[in-house]
TrEMBL record:
Name of the protein in question: GRP2
Domain NAD-dependent epimerase/dehydratase: 5-262
Family recorded in the similarity comment: Belongs to the NAD(P)-dependent epimerase/dehydratase family. Dihydroflavonol-4-reductase subfamily.
An example Gene Ontology molecular-function term: oxidoreductase activity, acting on the CH-OH group of donors, NAD or NADP as acceptor
Organism per entry: Candida oxycetoniae
């Protein structure tokens, strides 16, 4: 049965996969975009992929942090029954942490929730894309070896979030997610909510890559290894958890379709990764590439930097197997090389 789904921030890395999967499943999609140009580009990508562009419309929301940002878009589409909120800043190129990261995340979420309350009379399900950043502490706030699960919260405070852009991003995700739960408690809306908390998101772009010089923040970890090989350089080394973007899109749809997902926080993580692990996959599967040799002294000991994720509850609710690291890396790199 066709459902009309509103996807905020529809041109984002994760959001494009959600749009694609919704259209493949014969849903109608209304996407919010920052400009008509971006909306037209996405419509063109949808057509080029052989999907039904007739089932996709876009609404321009220039600034999600502006009061009433989503009001007009929802007024125009009273048929919307599901609202997927993915729009939020994820970059570290900021001058003012509060103004550029924290406020847009919190205000954007508040505006979406208020618009649904006032003008989303048919909305039954809301899924908010949050982040693993809300679950576990990072940097000075991490407790290596400590187990975290769907009930855990990052202890970061507003004051700590203003320290640097990374802390600002982490804080923005926590404060935005807290805003959702507070809103539900205070307003007791007619719709039900689920929260998606992905870790680093790898995987190919949903549509053709127009600009390979800089990919989304997570995929730049993979791309930076390829660039370092070409430039005879050292990539920055990372360690953390990953999930494939196609699994995030699937989880978003399961979250509004399955009753078990209501009022749940879902941690999307397939497992750990390090730059070293990714490099070994590339050496095995892309023998033609010129790849860097990592500086052994800069290798990150994953056990000393990360909490341990227990997301068995999430996996049980979702009911599908996640894509593994090798496939995720291989598909990402194949697209970079072939497009």
């Amino acid at each position: 049965m066709s459902t009309t789904v509103f996807v905020s921030g529809a041109t984002g890395f994760i959001a494009q996969h959600i749009v694609k999967l919704l259209l493949e499943n014969n849903h109608k999609v209304v996407g919010s975009v920052r400009s008509a140009k971006k909306g037209e580009e996405l419509t063109s990508s949808i057509k080029n992929a052989g999907l039904s562009a007739d089932n996709f419309t876009f609404e321009v929301v220039e600034d999600i942090a502006a009061k009433g940002a989503f009001d007009e878009a929802l007024k125009k589409h009273p048929q919307v029954t599901v609202f997927l909120h993915t729009a939020s800043p994820f970059h570290f190129d900021v001058k003012d942490i509060k103004k550029d990261l924290i406020d847009p995340a919190v205000e954007g979420t508040t505006n979406a929730l208020n618009a649904i309350k006032e003008y989303g009379s048919s909305v039954k399900k809301v899924v908010v894309t949050s982040s693993y950043a809300t679950v576990s502490g990072f940097g000075e706030l991490v407790t290596p070896g400590k187990t975290v699960d769907e009930t855990s919260w990052n202890p970061i405070t507003h004051e700590q979030a203003l320290k640097d852009p990374m802390a600002g991003y982490i804080g923005s995700k926590k404060f935005a997610e807290k805003t959702v739960w507070d809103f539900i408690e205070q307003n007791k809306p007619q719709w039900q909510v689920s929260i998606i908390n992905p870790v680093y998101v790898f995987g190919p772009q949903a549509f053709e890559v127009k600009d390979k010089s800089k990919l989304n923040t997570s995929n730049e970890i993979i791309n930076s290894i390829l660039k370092a090989g070409k430039d005879k350089d050292q990539p920055q080394q990372f360690a953390g958890y990953f999930i494939d973007v196609r699994d995030v899109a699937k989880a978003e749809i399961v979250a509004f379709e399955k009753e078990e997902a209501v009022d749940q926080r879902l941690i999307l993580s397939e497992g750990p990764f390090t730059t070293d692990k990714i490099l070994n996959i590339l050496k095995k599967d892309f023998k033609q590439l010129e790849l860097p040799t990592l500086d052994e002294s800069k290798k990150i000991n994953w056990d000393s930097t990360e909490s341990i994720i227990n997301n068995e509850k999430t996996k049980k609710i979702l009911g599908f197997k996640f894509i593994d690291l090798e496939q995720s890396v291989d598909d990402t790199v194949a697209q970079i090389l072939n497009d």
